[in-house]
Amino acid sequence: MKDSNIANGQVLLLFKALPFWTIPVVTGVVMFMFCYLTGAFAPPNGEASLRIFNGALAMPIFVVYVWIAVLVMKRRAIACLNQFTQNSVHDLTYVNFEQDIESRLKKNIIWSVALGILFTCTYLYHEDLIATDLSPALFLLNIYTLLFWFFNSLVLLQLFFITQYVIKHFLDNEKIDLFGIQKLLPISDLVITNTIISTFGLALIPLFWIGRTVPTIDKIIVTAVFILMSGYLFWPVLKVQKIISRKKRLAIMRINTQFQTLFESKLGVSRRLTDDAQRLRKLSSLISAKQEISVASEWPIDLPQSIKGVLISMSIPLSWVAGSFVESFISKFF
């Protein structure tokens, strides 16, 4: 019995030592294997067989990618928030973000199961795929559809939760300092990570379109959805910019008021400002403070990081639209 416990402990340690992406990748390989065994990868000879082929190719890739994405998002969120709390001058020890993220992930898994079943049933009913005489390949893809919608629901719920959590607990007016913008870079890093995850997820959608004529409007709709999602994910950055901008404006207004008070005050009946060393020092101090506040950055994101995030985020969906127009142009004139 003792030897059995030791062996089980060694297996558990070995399991924990594996890279976090091992189980998703192995699952994807198994999914591909079943697709092959059921004939889903047979050369397509029509629209129906082409849809089966595309689904067998795309769904395992989607499941693996989104599963890994959920794990990466969790790790990045904990790492970035931990770095932010260490950099912050405010006491944030009361925010147990690691426990909150773990707890919310478990709840989102339950919600994702329910949403996955709902979306799968709706899709199968709409596509008239609920039947008892389905081919093995089509039956298998119906099961994969449940995994597909489960993981997509989970990643969306996690994206929305992490964004709202950061805004609620870390980005209120009192915790953001006018000259502490560099300390907010971990938040920006988290935002860009989540945006890139969304980008590459949408980049996999054309796998369902291989060999099929996809209307331009479909690609435009997907691109519009991505832009809206990116805007939501960048909400923390936009909120920081708004708070910093407001604090800069109020600080400059206070300095301007002190300027006015300084010029209106007199120590003597006809004493000029240039004859008063104390007021000159005060004036110099106010000018320096105003210049320092005016040049303070409002954006909690460095330029190389922002350019990288924007280019990666926008290049893929825009390439769909551009490619669709080029394809339409060629088919029209040639």
From TrEMBL:
<keyword id="KW-0472">Membrane</keyword>
<feature type="transmembrane region" description="Helical">
    <location>
        <begin position="109"/>
        <end position="126"/>
    </location>
</feature>
<protein>
    <submittedName>
        <fullName>Uncharacterized protein</fullName>
    </submittedName>
</protein>
<feature type="transmembrane region" description="Helical">
    <location>
        <begin position="187"/>
        <end position="208"/>
    </location>
</feature>
<feature type="transmembrane region" description="Helical">
    <location>
        <begin position="146"/>
        <end position="167"/>
    </location>
</feature>
<feature type="transmembrane region" description="Helical">
    <location>
        <begin position="12"/>
        <end position="40"/>
    </location>
</feature>
<feature type="transmembrane region" description="Helical">
    <location>
        <begin position="52"/>
        <end position="73"/>
    </location>
</feature>
<feature type="transmembrane region" description="Helical">
    <location>
        <begin position="220"/>
        <end position="238"/>
    </location>
</feature>
<keyword id="KW-1133">Transmembrane helix</keyword>
<keyword id="KW-0812">Transmembrane</keyword>
